[in-house]
Structure formats: C-alpha cells, structure tokens
Design goal:
Layout (H helix, E strand, L loop, with lengths): L1 H12 L12 H29 L5 H9 L1 E6 L4 E15 L2 E5 L5 E5 L7 E2 L4 E5 L2 H35 L6 H33 L3 E2 L4 E6 L6 E2 L5 E7 L3 E8 H4 L7 E6 L6 E8 L9 E8 L10 E13 L1 E2 L5 E3 L2 E7 L5 E5 L1 E5 L4 E5 L7 E2 L12 E5 L10
Parallel strand pairs: 1-23
Antiparallel strand pairs: 1-22, 2-11, 2-15, 3-10, 4-6, 4-9, 5-8, 6-7, 8-10, 11-14, 12-13, 12-15, 13-14, 16-21, 17-18, 18-19, 20-21
Helix pairs in contact: 4-5
C-alpha cells in the first residue's frame, strides 16, 4: 500500500516521464521511429536518382557507346543541275596580226606620222623614206620620154610627106616601107621611156610604208633618221580591225568537249572586268610534251585587252546533273578524292569520288555519290573508317536542320 502511494506521488511530481502499462518509456521510442523514416526517405531518393541518371532498362555497354560518339555535322546533297563550265588560262593576242616592213629598196626614214595605239585606215602612210635620188631619176626619165616623143613626131611627119610624093613617082614603095618602120620604132621608144618612168615612180611609191589594212597599231619599231631596207624586218605591228583573241590552254580531255561557237567569259589579269567572247577555232593538234591544246576565243576590241597579257577564261560547256558538296567535305590522298558517308549503325565509311565542275555553290561530284547519302560536312580529316558518330544534319551553309 505504501509502495503504490509512493509511485503515484513520484509520478505526480514528474508528470512528463510517465510509463506505459508494459513499463516502456514513450519519448525515446518516437526518436528512433523518426530516424528510421528519415533513412528510408534518403534511400528512396538515392534509388530514384540512380534510376533517372542511368536510364530505365539501358545496358551499360550501350550507354558507354552513346556517350563516346562524337556529334558530327553531315549533309545530304541531293542532285543539282549545273551549268557546265571549263576554266582555262592563256594569253591575249591580236586575232590577225599584220607585220609591216619595207617593201621597196629602203633608205633613210624622214617621217613617222603615227604612234602605237593609233587607228589607221588601209593605205595610210606609216613612215616616209627619203627619195631625193629617186626624184632625180624620174626627172631624167621623163626627159627621155619627151625626146622619144619628138623623134616619133618627126618620123610620122616624114612618112606623111613621103606618102604624098609616092603618087607622083618621086619616092618608091621601098622608101615608104622604110619610113613606116622608122615611125613605128620611134613610137615604141616612147612607150619604153614611159614604162621606165612608171617603174621608177612605182619604186618611189614603195618607199612610203603604208598600212595594208585598217586596224590598230600595236607596236612601232622605227624612228626618223633610221636607215631601213627589205632586210630590216617588221617596223610596225597592226591588229587588223582591232580584233583580239585569247589563246586558252586546255587539257586534251577538256578540249575534246569544246567546239567552235561556244560562249566564253574572259577576265584579264589585274582587272575585275569581264569580256564576252566566242570560240572560233579549236586546235587540231595536242602538244606531246604538255598534253594540252589551244582554244582560240575571238574578242572585240577593248582598251583593257592588251596583246601579250595573261587572262582567265570561263567557257560554257552544257549542263551537268550531279551532287554538289562544299570543299570542306572533300578529302584527298595519293589515290585521289574521297568523302566519309554515314553507314549502318552511324558508322562512317570511306568512299572514293570523282570531282567535276567548281561552282559558287561548291564542287560537283560526277562519280561515287547518288546524292541521297549523308556525307560528313567537315572534320572528316579527324575521323577513321568505322568510327561511330552522332550525325547532325545541316544544310549547305552548315546550319542545323530542324527535325
């Protein structure tokens, strides 16, 4: 009885520390429960994080491969209709160049009234040669013509008088024949003297160096006071009609695709201006050393077209339907050009190609691609055949294509 009273008294003094019927303390039990719940929550969070991070149902081998594959830009080029073009280099020249030299005996040059770059007409005097001696010869020969004409007139007068006397019997028929022969000989001497004068005058006229045809003087190689002759060579070079041309050097493969009449655009070196021309002759032979031939492209006159200058030509040669790739997609080695295409399981495959025309959009591939393939856009030099990549489709400008 006393015992129960004491217990109740103690409990009354400390109400917060009551025991249950089994003698268990209530406060420590709650703490343990809280700790267990917290540990269970932490375990659930960790399991969820591991599940989300590694992916539901993903195998470790597949995850490793996906993580190691590099993201590489690829392009599907398709096919494009391209205006065929052949690029060539060569020199400019006069289409018909006329070398002009001394046609006569020559002598000392007294006058050169033209300069290089002047336009001249056919027969225009380009240079005058001294003819003082020849002029005296003409004067002498002209006097001989007068003498011959006087003799001819006298012979004719004698014949006329004899014809009047023959009727009276004073002169025989034989005398008439002799006088007639004298008259005819005198007339012949007149013609000889006149021919000599004409010849001398013709020779003198050849002392003037004249233009054989209208055109542009390209070069003047004579000065007043210079002594020239038939062996002096060309004194002037003239482009007939001012017509120019480009002598385009082409490989025998390109030359085989060309024909007269094809249009061409010519750009002289050092100039941004282009000139339209037309092929008028394709070389019938190939140089055995260089394996090249010449296509002659006719051009109209322009001050920028200077004979002897260097120029580039773009020749239209029909149309071609082929894939076009940017230069960054094409690689090359000792065997030629190649590209990397995306094959099965996104592994790159090396493929040989043959390139063709170079355009503003890129380089045409005439063999090796259908156009539907996915071709590595760039960074192909860092790949190896069979390497796994993560292809990212882009357009020709390298911009990503959505979807």
């Amino acid at each position: 009885m006393n015992y129960q009273t004491n217990v109740r008294a103690e409990t009354a003094d400390h109400p917060s520390e009551q025991f249950d019927m089994q003698g268990t303390h209530t406060k420590p039990s709650r703490k343990i429960a809280y700790i267990v719940i917290a540990l269970l929550l932490l375990g659930a969070i960790a399991a969820a994080y591991f599940y989300v991070t590694n992916g539901a149902g993903a195998t470790p081998a597949a995850d490793d491969r996906e993580g190691q594959a590099a993201a590489i830009s690829v392009i599907a080029p398709g096919k494009t209709t391209i205006e065929g073009q052949i690029n060539a280099t060569g020199t400019l020249a006069a289409r018909r160049e006329l070398p002009v030299g001394v046609a006569g005996e020559g002598g000392r040059v007294t006058l050169v009234p033209v300069e290089a770059g002047d336009w001249v007409r056919a027969g225009q005097v380009l240079a005058v040669i001294d003819r003082s001696v020849q002029n005296q010869q003409i004067a002498s020969q002209s006097a001989q013509v007068s003498v011959a004409k006087a003799d001819a007139d006298l012979a004719q007068a004698n014949l006329d008088r004899a014809l009047k006397l023959v009727e009276r019997g004073f002169i025989s028929k034989a005398d008439i024949d002799r006088l007639t022969a004298t008259r005819d000989a005198a007339n012949a001497r007149v013609k000889v003297a006149e021919a000599q004068v004409g010849e001398t005058r013709a020779r003198n006229s050849r002392l003037n160096i004249v233009a054989p045809a209208a055109g542009l003087i390209l070069e003047r190689m004579v000065e007043p006071g210079q002594v020239v002759s038939a062996g002096s060579g060309a004194l002037f070079r003239i482009a007939r009609g001012g017509e120019m041309e480009m002598l385009a050097q082409l490989s025998e493969v390109d030359l085989a695709t060309l024909s007269a009449g094809l249009a061409a655009s010519i750009t002289p070196t050092g100039s941004d201006k282009s000139f339209e021309g037309q092929i008028w002759q394709v070389s019938p032979v190939i140089d055995p050393q260089s394996r090249q031939g010449t296509a002659r492209i006719a051009l109209s006159y322009a001050p920028e077209l200077r004979p002897g200058g260097f120029a580039n030509a773009t020749i239209a040669s029909g149309t071609v339907v082929a894939p076009i790739l940017p230069e960054s997609a094409l690689l090359s080695d000792d065997e030629g050009a190649f590209v990397y295409v995306v094959g099965k399981e996104n592994k790159v495959e090396r493929r040989r190609v043959k390139t063709g025309l170079v355009t503003a959009q890129g380089i045409a591939v005439v063999d090796g691609l259908e156009g539907s393939e996915r071709v590595v856009y760039q960074a192909g030099g860092f790949l190896t055949e069979g390497e796994l990549i993560s292809p990212q489709l882009v357009d020709a400008a390298g911009k990503a294509i959505e979807g």
